[in-house]
Structure formats: C-alpha cells, structure tokens
Queue: 3 jobs
Job 1
Amino acid sequence: MSKGIVLLAAGGTGGHVFPAEALAFKLKERGYSVHLVTDSRAERYAGKFPAEEIHVVPSATIGSKNPVAVARSLWTLWSGMRAAKRLIQRLKPVIVVGFGGYPTVPPLLAATRLGVASMLHEQNAVMGRANKALASRVKAIAGGFLPESGDAFSDKTVATGNPVRPAILATAEQPYLPSHPGEPFNLVVFGGSQGAQYFSKAMPTAISLLDDGLRARLRVTQQVRSEDMEMVSGCVAKLEMGADIAPFFNDMAERLARAHLVICRSGASTVSEISVIGRPAILVPYPHALDHDQAANAAALAATGGAKVIPQSELSPERIASILSHVMNDPDKLSHMAAAAKLAGKPDAANLLADMVEAIAAGKTVSEFKRTRA
C-alpha cells in the first residue's frame, strides 16, 4: 500500500529532470507513488522516469519586454496554475517538490495556495529565477551547491548535494583506469542542450592539430546538436579517427565511467555526476548563462583539484590540443585529478533528499530536520 503521492515538478531539461528522477527512484523504494509535472521537452526522459503518470501543465517564462508577450505569458501561467490546482486537488499529494525551470512555477504556486507541503531543490550554486521566485513561499529548500549560511534563504536551506541517477551510481564503483602512452585514450565531450555548438566547432580543429600518434590513440564520444551532425561527422571522417557522434547518448553513464578525460560544460548535474564517478575534467562554463551559475558550479569542483576550469573565451582549439598533448602523456596527473573529483562526490544525496522530503511532508521544520542529522 502506498504511503501517499509525491508530486515532482521539473523543467524539461536534463539538469532539472535527472535529479528529480534520482529522487523518484528513492521514494518508490520507500513506498511512495510518484507523479511528475513537466513540459513537452521532457519526453525523451519519460521512458526511464519512474512516475505513475507524467502531467503537462501550461507554463511560460516572462523574458520579453513586449507588453503583448508579457500578457500572453501571464495568462499562460494563470491557466497553468488553475490546471495544477485541479491536479493537486485530484491527486492529493503529501508534498510537492520543485526542481527548477519555469514549468515548476504553476504547480508550486498552486500547492502553496492550497496549503500543501512544498519544497524546492536547487541544483546550482546560484539559485535559478524560477526557484528564486518561489523560495519565499515554500517550507524548505534543498541545495546541490547552495550554502546553509550567509544567504537570504539559508534558514530554510539544507545542503543535500545533487541526487544522481541510478545509472551513475551503478558505474561509480568502477575504478579510474589510466591510459598510458601508446594505449587507447577515451575522451568524452558534451555541452548540454544549449552549450554543444562551441564544442562542435572547436574539438575537430583541436584534434586535427594533434600529432598522428596521439590522434590514433583517441576514442572520442561527443554530444553534437542535430544541426551540427553533418559537419562534425565529415571532420571525423577526414581525420580517420575513432569517434561516436550523436545528439544524445542513452548510455552516457557508462561512457563517463570509461572516460580518461571529460571536456564539458559545468551544469550542476554534470559536475555532480562527474564527481560521484570520479573522472578528471576540463570544465568550460556556458558563458551566456543568465546567473553565471555554471562558473560557480565549476569552481566548487576545481577547488578540490578534480577539475580545471577554463573560460570559453580562453579555450582556443590550439589550447585544447596543447592540453590533450600534455595529459595524454601524463596518466599520473589524470589519476590524481580523478581521485580528487571522487572525494568531492556526494553519492548519498538522493537518500538525504528523500529523508528531507519525508520530514517536510510529515510537518517537520527545517530546523527540526537539521537536528535529526546532527
């Protein structure tokens, strides 16, 4: 018999959906039923998300200064909140948990108005706009990289870390096996839904600058936007190198576990997954992030020695080639970085977040929950 329904709300990108998915598995293990509210972008993840049902509620972001566009967005949000209110009244969840992104706004607003227990999980070191708008209304905030002190909402914040998907936890036990000179070198490159374009242009050029011996060792996995596939595939063919190029990889956890080096953006889920598995990384924060959250996320892992952070403006193809030339012949350096990344990982974040969800659903305050952890 179910302990009750937990309604999770998340924007339709991997950065929002993956932590929600990790929590959903834990809650199912503990006897809860899980429903997800999101938008149509999350369809690619729907097959793996352990929800009894996935609901799409109207929502919109207010990013335009055009009065007509603003009015249209406000009407969509109002419609979404009414739809979310009907959904919550029908499901009667014990708690509603938001994971950021504008699709979380209607269900969390509806929950707080109906007096249903509510909380947020913020993946990044800088709170996103949707979560910031909701933070004063909810009972608690779980933070991936947020501090528990010195912040406007620190009195209701618990630093849980970012839950990672079961596939990541399953591969986290695989030790880092260095690649020595003359051996195959697995390089994983990805940029997320917004940030892959830069790598599509920079990486083939960088690889073309390597000497033939190093290029022959490379085994590349690279996430590429659909519109860049033809260009990158053509470059790979000309370079006559081993590479898997695709817009999305269902087995990315296994590819990360086999990686000798990762070059990627520094979204919160990415940084958390790399650290839990324990792989050395070159982090390139997405330069157009509104709140510069990726730079703050990257700094957290770099501080442990598990990653090197390089702004995109300073990372030319020539510099990438120089970095690869050095690290491919320095397995000890990469092994030390892998160990440092592993120390920064929080593999138990999903359990801690599930504990917090249960506590808030049961009516406990953040202070009471923190005392139980002490």
Job 2
Amino acid sequence: MSQVYAARRTRLRERCNAGGSAAALVSRPANVRYLAGAAPHGAVLLLGKTEDLLVCSVPPEDRPTEGRPDDSLPVRALPGPGGDPAVAATGLAAAQGAESLATEDHHLTVVRHRAMRSVAPRLRLTDLGQAVEQLRVVKDEEEISCLRIGAEIADQALGELLESILVGRTERHLALELERRLVDHGADGPAFPTSVGTGPNSGRRGHRPTDRRVEEGDFLSVCLGATYRGYRCEIGRTFVIGTSPADWQIELYDLVFSAQRAGREALAPGAACRDVDRAARQALDSAGYAEHLPALTGHGVGLEIDEDPQLAPAAMGKLDACVPVTVEPGVHLPGRGGVRIDDTLVVRPEADGGPELLTITTKELLAL
C-alpha cells in the first residue's frame, strides 16, 4: 500500500504545483487517512518542499481499525502536550524553505488559521480547496473491495435481525442490536448512527430511534451501514410487521421500489448526476408525492458516509466509472409512515455488466 499512498500524494503535489504552491497541509481526517494510511486524532499531513511528514500530537497507536500509517512516511510527534500539529507543520514547511503553503480552509477554524500565520509570517497561505476530496471520488479496486466487505457485513447483520422476533421490541433496542451485530461480524463499527423507524416513524430520513415499540401492521424501515478499514457503506430496507400488508402499503412500496430501480438503472459512466436523481424522482413526482421526497436521491460513499457526488436536482457534474454511490429514494407520509429503499452500488460501464450492486438483501416487501 505504500506505493498507493505515495502515488496519491504525488497527484496532490502536482495539483498544488500547478496552483503555485510547493507545499500543502492536509488537516481533514478523512483526507489525511486517504493520503497517509491513518489519521491519528488531531494529526495533519504536510506535503513539504523537501519531505512529507505525518505530524501528530502523540505517536500513533497500533490500532488496525484506525489504519496504519504508510511505512515510507516519516512521523513527527510533538515534543509535549497541548501543541497543535497544524501550527507545528506550518513551521516545518517554512523551515523547509517553502514560500507558500496550501491549506484546507474549509476545515480550519479562524483561530487555528491565525496561529498558523503567526508561526510563519513570511509564508503565504493559500486555499487548497476540495482538491483531496476530488481525488477521493473515483475509487481503486482495493477501496471498492473494502466497501464490498462492509456491505456483506451489513447484509449479514440485517438478515439475522429479520430472523428474530420483532413485535414488542423498541426502535432503540433494534438499532443497538444491529450495531452490535456489525461489530461481531468484523466491522470497525457502524458507518453512521443506525436508524430504525416503526409505524408513523418509518421511512423518515435520518430518524433517530425512540422507545416506540414495534406493532403488528407497522411498516418497519431500517437504515444501517458498516465501516470496514475506514470505508463506509449504506443499506436501507422497509418491511411490514406480522401481517399481510395493507393496500396502501403495497401501493406506496411498489412506487418507491420502481423509483429506486429507475435510479439504479440510470447509473453509468458519463451520466449526469441530476439525471440519475430525475430518473428516481419522476415516478414519485407523477404519483403526487413530490412534497414528501428527500432533497437528494443519493450520494457518494467512501472514507466518509456522505461524499461527492451528490445525486440531487441541482447537482452538477457527471458520474465516472468506479464511483460508489447510494440510491435511496423514499417517501414519508406524516402520521402514517413510509418507505425507504437504499442500496450502495459502484458505477461500472455496460461492458463490465453495468452498476455493481454491493448490498444484496432482498427488496421484496416481506411480512415479518
């Protein structure tokens, strides 16, 4: 992996040089991990004029779930407590003879930025912008393999839950059990707080589990994800509890299922992000549910659960091959509940079989 991380740093350095900066300071944790292999708490990565350094408050601990620093990358720990690695790295950049330093202004606080200026007043600080995030959009096969394993873990945890007795249990209890099962099956942990919604809470995006108990006839919507070696995937499914679904539940589910399938089928290299969103949204709009739809149909995933690209009505740009995204349309009807169906897929060309589905738990409307 050392060669992989070195190649990523080289690509970033080329962008910095093209922008007139001989050095860069990366502080956003996911970006540090992408370029260095690990991101110990508070650590920053200096792409220096003469040497790259991972600057940490304390020496990194050997925790496989948090990644391991690239063996070829020197690590510099601060000599005492209370220091700021970003400020220290700015001083190191100046000591290496850099005249300018590109920084992630979207991540740094004003106070931190001022402290960096004060330690090297002659060093010109420029904005690196979203350069690293842009590099992270297209994944290599090693990254996709981590996402694939995470999806398998999430599928397994969800499948086991569906085989258990659900009536009478609380949303909070079910969410905690799912997160425990994720870890039991090898995940670093949940990719995000697990959402379990029952009855009137079902289908609500980002719903935080409550003490409401599962009742017969409820819609039960579950959204969970696993983190594996830092990479995060997502799956969401909706079921009916204990009885045959009512007519309105079948109708709503079929509509959301059709929308989700249309979104999945629209994924292709070169497809406009807004067109994928439109494909998924069209059937639901036509059925009169426009006001009940989420703001976006999906988003990229990777070292963070919500990355670029965004699949939304006003989204700019087009999809590339090897970009993992979610497709997650849903409808929530206040006071009644709703449906959400959510998959993680990798954009692939038609010659390679089209979009690769990572989350394979059935999307049939099951009565549990």
Job 3
Amino acid sequence: MKTIAFLLHNNFEQAEYEDVNNQLKDKGYKTLLITTNEDKEVQAMQQDVNKGDTFTADIFAKDANVSDYDALVLPGGTVNADTIRGNKEAHDIINAINDAGKPLAVICHAPWALINTGIAKGKTLTAYHTLQTDLENAGATYVDKTVQVDGNLITSRNPDDISNFVDAIDKALS
C-alpha cells in the first residue's frame, strides 16, 4: 500500500487537507499528517476566514523520514503556506521528495513553498490566481488550469479543483 504524506502547519485550508485526504483514502492509499507546528494539534480554516476543525498530526516534521512516503501533498491556506515556505524542516522534506522524483502535489497558496525552495524555476505551474506574479518572478510559467502536471510536480488552484487534483495524484502513483 502506498503512503501519501501531508505537510502543514496551522491555519491551512480544511478542504485541501480533509477532502483530499478522504478521497485518497477512498482510492486505497494510506495517508499521514506531518506538521511543522510545535503541537500535534493543528487548526484548519475555512476560506482563511473561519476556524475549521482541529486535526492531530501523526508526526513532527523533524522526525519525518521521506523514504517512508510515496508522495507529498501541501495544502494551502495563506497563513499555513506562508509559514511552510519559511520553514527549514519543511524545505528539507519538500526538497527530498522532489529530489527523489516522487509526486509533489501542491494546491492553492502552497506553491509559495516551491518558490522558496527553488523548485518553481523553469516549471509550468498553476496556483491560486494571486500567486501568478510570484511564480513568474521565480522563473515559472503560470497557467490557469484546474490541475497542471510538470514532471513530478502536480499543482492545482483551489478547493473547487480537488477532484482533478486527487485524480492527478492517483495517476502519478499508478
């Protein structure tokens, strides 16, 4: 059974974790939650405005072993994505997954992490529309599509695109 890890902090978009997680589990994948937070209890948000549910992470980022995961998903949420893009432990995990050529699936505001790790340069990516300039300034080509695959990178725009995002992850792991 293939294992898909989710990496997040706090104030992530609930649907981009919970709905993606549930759909991947329905397809037969094992999933686990890695956090850069100092506590295993992580707070979700709904459209960056209202607090959502809390979830319990399985492991802290500092204890994560990338060889245990077949793919990595980065949910969005502006505060979460901004925190992840500035976190060294998160960068280490993201870079290790990318360097191994494993699927790296990134949605909404989470492509900020691809900018900060240098992964975005030379790639064709999609994201929440407000990241277009950031991605282009980092040397990426921005496209406005529900899902964009460039090598091992799978990017998507927002929660409306989750079913296509999950299908792309499943196809990459098949």
